[in-house]
Write a structure and sequence with these properties.
This protein has 365 residues and is an alpha/beta fold. It has two domains: 4-188, 3-Layer(aba) Sandwich (Glutaredoxin), CATH 3.40.30; 238-243 and 251-363, Tetratricopeptide repeat domain (Serine Threonine Protein Phosphatase 5, Tetratricopeptide repeat, Alpha Horseshoe). 58% of the residues lie in helices and 10% in strands. The protein is built from 14 helices and six strands. The chain has a six-stranded mixed β-sheet. Strand 5 (149-153) and strand 6 form a beta hairpin. The longest helix has 31 residues, at 183-213. The protein is globular, with a radius of gyration of 21 Å. The chain starts with a helix and ends with a helix.
């Protein structure tokens, strides 16, 4: 994701996403279970009105679709909009179409005005559900009871993935468009996740309650319990743990040791996680000590994974070089970030402001 705020909002996004998996697990405990799962043929879209973009009459063979359920009143949905816009731009030429479907009761009166106000920030197809026909066929059938929830439809018209749009969506689209997506593995993974979530749901409930009560030691303990159940499945929660250790518990050395371990294992090939942790080290307020060497190592690895083509990651790398005192490399990385970010991009102003900061520092030398 290229949105600075999105880096720190990922924790709430993850929580919402795993609640959806938990809902599916509960549905599978019922006698019938969910009637729409990964691997099934995608249901048709029953749409009352297409507010923006071209209508989708059918899921054309050879094309990839993302069907995302959202509402104007939903804060996490609004947070996901810039990310979905970026994904649509990134994958448009690879045959991907993103459709945001609103099923809210007063959609006809509120969605068009909302979309018009968003303008280019919401630059993908937007539709209003026909009553709740589409929502029932997708959300209810899949046992999903939280929004935003996204469904990926593969080139052969089958559901390839279900989850929060700010979780694994970009990686799934990368895999499908590159021809390396394995549907059978995805089906097995989805079944495994549901089984794990049956065990994880009480832990998640305790974690949420501890968070509401401000009992951050307990939150960290519960995150560890989740990762013990399945480290790969809950690896993204490690980012939340690092943030809590740094910002709430002020256990900096413990946070850095855990981050270093994660960077060499389950975060090693996760550019966005590496980027987020690096930025947390560089930007978290009131730290007694910043492990700048670790922050730089994480940022360099993230840049390597993305072939230095992600403006947000290059921005972090520039900040790491700057705080390490290497102004020449900081300027080079920041200028590269600006060369990638579109003139109307969401990070443009921030990138320009930081470049001026680095140029001013260099001028004093």
């Amino acid at each position: 994701m290229h949105c600075r705020a999105c880096r720190l909002l990922i924790v709430s996004a993850l929580a919402a996403g795993w609640l959806g998996v938990a809902a599916a697990a509960r549905a599978q405990d019922e006698e019938a279970g969910p009637s729409l799962v990964v691997g099934d043929k995608a249901p048709p879209l029953k749409i009352a009105r297409w507010v923006k973009g071209q209508s989708v009459a059918e899921f054309a063979p050879g094309k990839v679709f993302v069907v995302e359920f959202w509402a104007t009143w939903c804060p996490p949905c609004r947070t996901s909009i810039p990310h979905l816009t970026e994904l649509q731009k990134k994958f448009k030429e690879k045959g991907v179409t993103i459709v945001g479907v609103s099923s809210e009761d007063d959609a006809a009166s509120v969605v068009p005005a909302f979309v018009e106000k968003m303008g280019e920030k919401m630059d993908y197809a937007v539709a209003i559900d026909d009553g709740r026909t589409t929502s029932r066929a997708w959300m209810d059938a899949a046992g999903q009871d939280g929004i935003p929830t996204a469904f990926v439809v593969s080139k052969d018209g089958r559901v390839a993935w279900i989850g929060h749009p700010m979780a694994e969506l970009e990686q799934v689209l990368d895999d499908i468009t590159a021809g390396r997506f394995d549907m059978e593995k995805a089906i097995a993974k989805a079944k495994h996740e549901v089984e794990v979530m049956k065990k994880a749901e009480p832990i998640m409930s305790a974690l949420q309650q501890a968070g509401r009560d401000g009992k951050y030691e307990t939150v960290v303990e519960k995150i560890d319990e989740l990762m013990t159940l399945d480290q790969a499945m809950f690896s993204d929660w490690a980012f939340a743990k690092i943030q809590i250790l740094l910002n709430e518990l002020k256990k900096e050395e413990e946070a850095y040791a855990f981050a270093a371990k994660a960077a060499d294992s389950f975060f090693r090939d996760n550019a966005q996680a590496l980027n987020g942790v690096s930025w947390a080290i560089l930007d978290s307020a009131d730290l007694q000590k910043r492990d700048l060497a670790l922050a730089l190592r994480l940022a360099l690895r993230a840049a390597e994974l993305t072939e230095s083509k992600d403006a947000s990651i290059l921005d972090t790398l520039a900040r790491a070089h700057f705080q390490k005192g290497d102004l020449e490399k900081a300027l080079a990385a920041q200028r590269k970030a600006l060369s990638i970010e579109p003139p109307d991009g969401p990070m443009r102003q921030e990138l320009e402001e930081r470049l001026k900061q680095y140029e001013a520092a260099a001028a004093k030398e």
